[in-house]
Amino acid sequence: MSWGGGPEEIFLSTSLASYLDRKLLILLRDGRKLMGLLRSFDQFANAVLEGACERVIVGDLYCDIPLGLYVIRGENVVLIGELDLEKEELPQHMTRVSAAEIKRAQKAERDATDLKGSMRKRMEFLDMD
Amino acid sequence: MLFFSYFKDLVGREVTVELKNDLAIRGTLHSVDQYLNIKLENTRVVDQDKYPHMLSVRNCFIRGSVVRYVQLPPDGVDVELLHDATRREARGG
């Protein structure tokens, strides 16, 4: 595969080459957010992330769960964002918590949506909306 | 290849890309490729409060397959030109 010319052209093209060895945020189709260093990619946006971690956000809480070296299949990729290291990664009001705590918060949120769903189902005969 | 050429002409303009997951991102169109993958610069998310993790993303690559709409600048389309190009392409070159 050609890189489409010299080093200047990499920055003009849509190729991911300009993101190599940078810290990136990758959004996946299932809503997960992975962060890590881009080490390799191809034309399908398959990507190798070194030092990958998943950023879990629940309300104002967040947690980075370390994953290791990840190969991401391109079809699951929604967006690849270059992180501006100068800027705050998250708004200041957000708090970092432990993995156990974020799992609890995630479960509480899931239970709440499940409850809402089941209530809605029971009220369906009212023909709301 | 019509829309590929069309988007190439829009490089440098401000566009809003709405994704299939409802995330809408505004930014300067940096480049586009044959899959209609899009690179944006100076991005900002339209509904920032809902997507706090996007705060520090300045440049991004969007996979063409997840794009729902691209909102163009009001003068972003020369209808006459596009019309002609469409007919030319439909005739096969």
TrEMBL record, chain A:
Q: Which Gene3D superfamilies match?
A: 2.30.30.100
Q: Which residues form the Sm domain?
A: 11-86
Keyword Ribonucleoprotein set for record = yes
Task: Please give the superkingdom of this protein's source.
Answer: Eukaryota
Pfam families registered for this protein in UniProt = LSM (PF01423)
Q: What UniProt keywords are attached to this protein's entry?
A: Cytoplasm, mRNA processing, Ribonucleoprotein, RNA-binding
InterPro entries with a match to the protein in the record: Lsm1, LSM_dom_sf, PTHR15588, Sm, Sm_dom_euk/arc
GO biological process, any:
cold acclimation
**Has keyword RNA-binding?**
yes
Query: Subcellular location, in the record's words?
Result: Cytoplasm; Cytoplasm, P-body
This protein's GO cellular component annotations are: Lsm1-7-Pat1 complex; P-body; ribonucleoprotein complex
Name where it mostly resides. cytoplasm
What's the stated role of this polypeptide?
Component of the cytoplasmic LSM1-LSM7 complex which is involved in mRNA degradation by promoting decapping and leading to accurate 5'-3' mRNA decay. LSM1A and LSM1B are essential for the formation of the cytoplasmic LSM1-LSM7 complex which regulates developmental gene expression by the decapping of specific development-related transcripts. Required for P-body formation during heat stress.
Q: Which family does it belong to?
A: Belongs to the snRNP Sm proteins family.
Per UniProt, subunit arrangement is:
Component of the heptameric LSM1-LSM7 complex that forms a seven-membered ring structure with a donut shape.
For this entry, the protein name equals: U6 snRNA-associated Sm-like protein LSm1
Can you name the source organism? Answer: Papaver atlanticum
Q: What is the lineage of its organism?
A: Eukaryota, Viridiplantae, Streptophyta, Embryophyta, Tracheophyta
UniProtKB/TrEMBL annotation, chain B:
Q: Which SMART domains match?
A: Sm
Its chief place of residence is nucleus
Does this entry carry the keyword RNA-binding? yes
What does the UniProt entry say about where the protein is found? Nucleus
Top-rank taxon of the source lineage equals Eukaryota
Q: Which Pfam families match?
A: LSM
Sorted alphabetically, which SUPFAM superfamilies does this protein's record hold? Sm-like ribonucleoproteins (SSF50182)
Keywords from the UniProt entry: mRNA processing, mRNA splicing, Nucleus, Ribonucleoprotein, RNA-binding, Spliceosome
Q: Name one GO biological process term.
A: mRNA splicing, via spliceosome
Residues crossing the lipid bilayer are none
Keyword Mitochondrion among record annotations: no
Residue ranges constituting the Sm domain according to the UniProt record: 2-76
What GO annotations for molecular function exist for this entry?
RNA binding
InterPro entries per record = LSM_dom_sf, Sm, Sm_dom_euk/arc, U6_snRNA_Lsm2
Q: Which GO terms describe its cellular component?
A: catalytic step 2 spliceosome; Lsm1-7-Pat1 complex; P-body; precatalytic spliceosome; U4/U6 x U5 tri-snRNP complex; U6 snRNP
Biological role: Component of LSM protein complexes, which are involved in RNA processing.
PANTHER family xref list: SNRNP CORE PROTEIN FAMILY MEMBER, U6 SNRNA-ASSOCIATED SM-LIKE PROTEIN LSM2
Query: What family does the Swiss-Prot or TrEMBL record give for this protein?
Result: Belongs to the snRNP Sm proteins family.
Q: What is this protein called?
A: Sm-like protein LSM2
